[in-house]
Design brief:
single chain, alpha/beta, Nucleotidyltransferase, domain 5, 8-stranded mixed beta sheet, 5-stranded mixed beta sheet, globular, Aliphatic_acid_kin_short-chain
């Protein structure tokens, strides 16, 4: 029996959604409410496989108003006659901490824990919770399901997730590497395996390169290591996030510049990364443009960015005891041929070699004929993983 499932990805000022007919995995409607809380919020959506987009600009006060806009559009599309036809709503939730190793139906206790974990994912958990609360009000008969970024990485061994801190901080406070972008890495593995087969994807590295970025080592379908850590701040240089830094830098800056922990947290999350180094932008496209015009800071930012991606790929090849498939995904990974080319040009020792024409054309497979490693560009689909998990729980 087919069921209508909504997959939701709530941001601080946005609400991305897809309505699926499950288990056929047919996208009925997809769209985005952007600039929530502004007078000129933008609501765009398209029906099924049609290219025509419906777009309106109007005031959207908050996430509840955004959800109402989405429900009204779904009813107006004629694809549902009554909102009770939506039997499940799956929500992407950034941090599940040590509480959740798989997706769960949301109740008061789950909501409290998502709120509690906001301190570990301050950019995401609070707004994920706003989306949940808004849908609970307007779709009271649908089951609400939390699909955690961290769940896919619960298969990591202790040698990969433990920090060398006093052990009590792990046992008492849950301080460990959790990893994020789990739905994306999970989808990348499943799609690469569908296209190439399990043997070719047995040792796969997934590079989710967007404004937020992480790399995951996947062995036989299981995450064995990933670059983000206790929070989404760790790992790679990102758009505005620092990634890995020497921890002693933080008290040094606090003392020297009379900063408090909130100042430091804001600097690391909002003013660092590509933006902090280049002083141009958090957007790779802008930084590449600035580099082409002779901006030395932009050039340096890109060199650091690419170098760190290469470091993680090399390290994770050790974890996997080899490399069969390298996949690029997310905004930068899917669309920036220059970044893919720069990352791969120093990976020849691993057997990675790309075809420049295929890379420029954004083909699915971009490896050269004599490459020992498959190199792929796969658009991620986190919403499909959310819909699949939600349907399992709806039953």
């Amino acid at each position: 029996m087919s069921q209508k499932i909504l997959a939701i990805n709530a941001g601080s000022s946005s609400l991305k959604f897809k309505l699926y007919d499950m288990p056929e995995e047919v996208v009925l409607v997809s769209g985005l409410v952007d600039r929530i809380s502004h007078e000129d919020a933008i609501f765009t959506y398209k029906i099924g496989g049609h290219d025509d987009k419906h777009e309106t600009v109007q005031p959207v006060k908050d996430h509840t108003a955004a959800v109402q806009l989405v429900i009204d559009a779904l009813l107006g599309s004629g694809l549902i006659q009554d909102k009770s036809e939506i039997v499940g709503v799956g929500h992407r939730v950034s941090h599940g901490g040590r509480y959740y190793t798989q997706s769960v139906e949301i109740d008061d206790d789950v909501a409290e824990k998502i709120d509690e974990l906001s301190v570990l994912s301050p950019l995401h958990n609070p707004v994920n919770l706003l989306g949940i609360q808004a849908f609970e009000k307007l779709l009271p008969d649908a089951k609400e399901v939390a699909v955690f970024d961290t769940s896919f990485h619960s298969t990591m061994p202790p040698k990969a997730f433990m920090y060398a801190l006093p052990y009590k901080y792990y046992t008492e406070d849950g301080v460990r590497r959790y990893g994020f972008h789990g739905q994306s890495h999970q989808y990348i593995y499943s799609e690469a395996t569908r296209l190439l087969g399990e043997q070719t994807t047995s040792k796969l590295i997934s590079c989710h390169l967007g404004n937020g970025a992480s790399i995951c080592a996947i062995k036989d379908g299981k995450s064995v290591n990933t670059s983000m850590g206790f929070t989404p701040l760790a790992g790679l240089v990102m758009g505005t996030r620092s990634g890995d830094v020497d921890p002693e830098i933080l008290p040094f800056l606090e003392e020297k510049h009379h900063l408090n922990s909130e100042d430091i947290r804001s600097m690391l999350n909002h003013d660092s990364g590509l933006k902090g180094i280049s002083d141009v932008s958090n957007d790779v496209r802008d930084v590449l443009d600035a580099e082409s015009q002779g901006n030395e800071r932009a050039k340096l930012a890109l060199e650091i960015y690419v170098h760190q991606i290469q470091e993680y790929i090399g390290s994770y090849t050790t974890d996997l005891e080899g490399l069969t498939t390298l996949v690029f995904t997310a905004g930068v990974g899917e669309h920036s041929a220059p970044i893919r080319q720069r990352v791969c040009e120093r990976l020849g020792y691993l057997g990675v070699k790309i075809d420049d024409a295929k890379n420029q054309a954004n083909e699915i497979e971009i490896q050269a004929d004599d490459s020992r490693v498959k190199v792929m560009v796969i658009p991620t689909d986190e919403e499909l993983i959310i819909a699949r998990d939600t349907q399992k729980i709806v039953g």
